[in-house]
Write a structure and sequence with these properties.
Chain lengths: ~220, ~220
DNA sequence: TTGAATTTTTAGACTAGTCTAAAAATTGTT
DNA sequence: AACAATTTTTAGACTAGTCTAAAAATTCAA
């Protein structure tokens, strides 16, 4: 397998995740924003990754991962989520403390290590934030009837199934209001003018902005 | 604490280990050989590390770590040895399979992670090769009456206490002849002309060159 | 459908780390 | 103490990844 730099790996991962909720090609600017870098840097990297056949790229037309590129991205995501699971399950870190460390650990090169870690953890299906962990073969087991909190309807009762993992402060906030994986919630109301959602959590009312509601996934009961 | 690149960390570690068995300053060439690089590259790096006050360096006079530099080096060695212990104890790797992976893991930046790993492993005192693991504070507990096999005398009976960890093939060879930590050996003979040592291991006679004998440490019984 | 706004690319520069080749300093030997 | 051998440094170049500023392409709106 092609050996990649950390930077190349980070680009692949970013393109993959952006592709998850975007139809068609990913634009240079979109990617630059995600990578906290400049469009010109992105262009350079796209040329290089295209050269290596990890993605398709045509000037001014954005990019899309090839199968090769996708499987690289999935391998990195697999490592990231396995390491997060290790940190929480074995080293007792909080779910809000592991993202940064996993960002480093995901670049460790050794398939053997990854697979043994997977086994050591008991082949977990999801990471501490509820995100599915891709298998050895890169397959992600589809998670049943999950929707975003932003797509819920008033009156619904649901279970918290997953949250975005990349903002420490967001996770700390969830901790503070007592929201964890498996927590039961009731959708009390939605405000039409700004999309805010009012939710009952452990007998307390909490209001989520639409931005937050898009970062939480739930399973309706 | 000062943030260092992987390359800078590798130089510090190399200088530290070379200093262990060399009196006075480490020469540029010596370091270049250890780092598998050119003397000119070493000179550049020494200037940079001197600038950062991690070592003392004067043109043509070699270098020596400052206390700051030493404690950085010890922190990296601590991480390396803890990760090796993790790989062998928890993920069932062989002692001959872990060096390369630990070379990557030793650069993960998180003191919290290191200390929790230490705890998870039960605060081990030595790694799978018998090398002592520096503590949080950088202190290495002195290992009692260990000598190099090369310094043994004929007729001596001893226990294997440690081996160099950085050559996979050497470790595989030791596996093959049934030599592990704790194995008992008898020194049968030493050949004056080349320094070879003939040893009895599990009722089998084995001959070690002086080069090998310097990479094995023992405790006389 | 054309001109303005936006997006994207190019050109050129910078840093970190490395290299080769040549110059300079040190060391060793007589 | 002087010269030869060795070691070390300097000078200049290269790659990867990034940046700024300017040019080019695309998109959008009147």
């Amino acid at each position: 397998m092609l050996r990649l730099t950390q930077s190349e790996e980070n680009y692949l991962k970013a393109i993959f995740t952006l592709s998850q909720d975007t139809e068609g090609a990913i634009s240079t600017n979109e990617l630059a924003e995600k990578m906290l870098t400049k469009a010109s840097s992105v262009t350079d990297m796209l040329k290089k990754l295209c050269e290596k056949e990890l993605l398709e790229y045509q000037k001014y037309q954005g990019c899309a991962l090839t199968n090769e590129g996708k499987s690289h991205a999935l391998a990195i995501i697999r490592k990231h989520r396995l390491w997060e699971t290790f940190l929480v399950d074995k080293l007792s870190f909080g779910w809000d403390e592991v993202h940064e460390i996993a960002e480093q650990l995901e670049h460790i090169q050794s398939t053997e290590l990854t697979d043994r870690l997977d086994e050591f953890l008991g082949f977990p299906k999801v990471d501490p934030h509820g995100e599915p962990i891709p298998g050895k073969d890169g397959r992600i087991e589809s998670v049943s009837n999950r929707i975003l909190l932003s797509e819920s309807v008033v009156g619904m009762r649901a279970i918290i199934m997953g949250v975005e993992d990349d903002q420490t402060e967001f996770l700390q906030y969830l901790n503070k209001i007592g929201l964890h994986l498996g927590t039961q919630i009731d959708i009390l109301d939605k405000l039409n003018f700004d999309g805010s959602i009012i939710v009952m959590i452990n007998d307390k009312q909490v209001q989520f902005s639409i931005t937050i509601a898009k970062q939480i996934s739930i399973k309706p009961l």
